[in-house]
Specification:
Layout lengths: L9 H6 L14 H7 L48 H5 L12 E9 L2 E8 L9 E5 L3 E2 L2 E2 L12 H32 L3 E9 L8 E8 L4 E9 L9 H15 L4 E6 L3 H15 L2 E4 L1 H16 L7 H17 L6 H9 L2 H6 L4
Parallel strand pairs: 6-9, 9-10
Antiparallel strand pairs: 1-2, 2-3, 4-5, 6-7, 7-8
Helix pairs in contact: 7-8, 8-9
Length: 354
């Protein structure tokens, strides 16, 4: 008989501390199963077929004994059935030891798992039979029919994530990452990396920070670094630390970088200038979205001042012009982009509205 392990649900541990071994649900004998089948001839609409009545297969095929069941059958391919409660509880009216009267009582319901206490109540003297019946086997500490809908009530949702979901995600990511690295090596082109950090909470109270590396030619994320606050002096330094680790990973993978694009983080900018631009001749550009965000913020602040509301009408045009300055200069010539940007000043003096 297949054994199952104790549940990992917190509330079960408190109420079911001394659970006996759990097994598969009992099978009916062939005679009992036949008795439970209705006689098809009692149905006035019954029409017999060549294959037989087709109502109860146990009339033709014997029910296998529990010892004949393949113990190695995975639960996910084992047949499953929907059973009404009245029909299920009817199986517990007979004591399997003394064949006297017994009673079954549902003690726990967790999603699709049902736990039933089966106790002999034969009169005048019960035989003492007492067991717990479980409607499904267990995989480790998790019911085989476990549903994620129980996550708010059962801590096994976290266990399920840790044992199955997270390893599957990590395995898939590592295989995809390995394939991307191999493709980049075969192309023999130097990388154009766009990087940015994101913390688990805003401000300076973040505990974790992740730094994502996007290869612009592939337009795919090739690496992600995660840093915890206690690994650095404060949360502000997590971005720089994650960037350093990511650059080290690229060097370990023997991938050469030609260009890196980041935001205007002061520590990141200084480190790239000293360690990458001067030593390895790697070009550093600022992401236009971050620059546009900063300019837009200043324009809105200016528009809130007295008699400056007209600036609001120009914000969209100014930010669009900034994007055009960058997109129309594919070589990244800073002097050309600066001249294009400065050209916006004169038309704004001549035209009060965009």
């Amino acid at each position: 008989m297949r054994e199952a392990r104790t549940q990992c649900c917190t509330d079960w541990e408190a109420t079911e501390a001394n659970l006996p071994d759990k097994g598969l649900s009992p099978r009916l004998s062939e005679e009992s199963a036949v008795d439970m089948c209705d006689d098809p001839t009692n149905d006035p609409d019954y029409q017999p077929t060549e294959q037989g009545d087709g109502i109860c297969s146990t009339r033709h095929e014997p029910i296998p004994d529990i010892d004949d069941v393949d113990e190695l059958t995975p639960p996910h391919i084992e047949p499953k059935y929907l059973v009404f409660e009245s029909s299920l509880m009817g199986l517990f009216n007979l004591c399997p030891e003394c064949h006297g009267e017994s009673q079954g009582r549902i003690s726990h319901i967790r999603g699709s798992l049902i736990v039933i206490n089966h106790v002999c109540q034969n009169q005048p003297q019960p035989c003492g039979f007492n067991r717990k019946w479980y409607s499904q086997p267990f995989i480790g500490n998790i019911p085989a029919g476990y549903s994620g809908d129980e996550r708010s009530k059962c801590s096994s949702f976290i266990v399920h994530q840790r044992l199955y979901l997270q390893p599957a995600i990590v395995n898939t990511w590592e295989r995809m990452q390995f394939k991307m690295v191999e493709d980049l090596k075969e192309s023999e082109e130097k990388l154009v990396i766009g990087g940015d950090a994101r913390n688990d909470s805003p401000g300076h109270t973040a505990k974790y920070g992740s730094y994502t590396f996007l290869e612009q030619n592939l337009n795919k994320v090739i690496h992600v670094e995660l840093v915890q606050k206690n690994e650095v002096a404060n949360s502000y330094q997590m971005e720089l630390e994650a960037l350093k680790r990511g650059i080290a990973w690229l060097q370990t993978m023997e991938l050469e970088m030609r260009t890196i694009i980041t935001d205007r983080h002061m520590q990141v900018t200084a480190w790239i200038r000293e360690e990458l631009t001067k030593k390895e001749d790697i070009k550093h550009y600022f992401d236009v979205w971050h620059i546009s965000k900063g300019i837009k913020k200043k324009l809105r602040a200016a528009a809130a001042m007295k008699d400056c509301g007209l600036i609001n009408d120009w914000i969209k045009s100014i930010t669009n012009h900034l994007y055009w300055c960058a997109s129309s200069s594919p070589d990244g010539d800073g002097g050309v982009m600066a001249a294009k940007w400065a050209s916006i000043v004169k038309p704004h003096y001549e035209h009060p509205c965009p």
